[in-house]
Amino acid sequence: MKAARIHSYGPPEVISLEEISIPEPGDGEVVVQMKVLKRGGILVSSVAQPSQEQAQQHGVRAMFFLVEVTTERLKKIAELIDAGELATEVGEVLWLHEACHGHEMIEGAPHR
Fold first, then answer.
1. d(CA 108, CA 106)
2. Pairing with 81, which of 20, 73, 90, 106 sits 20 to 30 Å away (CA)?
3. Contact, 43 vs 37, CB < 8 A?
4. For the chain, how big is the Rg over CA atoms in Å?
């Protein structure tokens, strides 16, 4: 698999396309690469309880978090985003016909 990798700060030219290996998780496991987080960062997973041992090794906090989604809560989140008080990072975008795959990903299926 090829991935865009950034090894230093700078202009777009510092981005390189590299071949990477994809770890294969075992039963009931999810691959989480905590090394991509900056020290002091926080990993929040809605898939599985992250390894606290790995989190300590990388100087980050890791937690499992799942919520009950309501219209009221989604409106509040949208207001925070619109006001610039909440920034988001989208990891995967799926078309509506791929919703089934989205649920499989939550259960640990590989992402693209």
1. 5
2. 106
3. yes
4. 17
In this structure, are residues 26 and 48 in contact, taking their beta carbons and an 8 Å threshold? Answer: no
Q: Which residue, 76, 102, 78, is CA-closest to 91?
A: 102
Both tokens assigned to 30:
């999810």
Taking residue 109's Cβ as centre, other Cβ atoms within 10 Å add up to 12
Listed residue (47, 7, 8, 44) closest to 25, CA to CA: 47
- Tell me 110's DSSP state: P
Q: For the residues of 71-96, what is the DSSP string, one character each?
A: HHHHHHHHHHHHTTS----------G
pLDDT digits (tens, 9 = 90+) for 39-48: 998 988 887 7
Give residue 84's pLDDT band: very low, low, confident or very high (50, 70, 90): very high
Inform me whether the pLDDT recorded for 9 exceeds 90: no
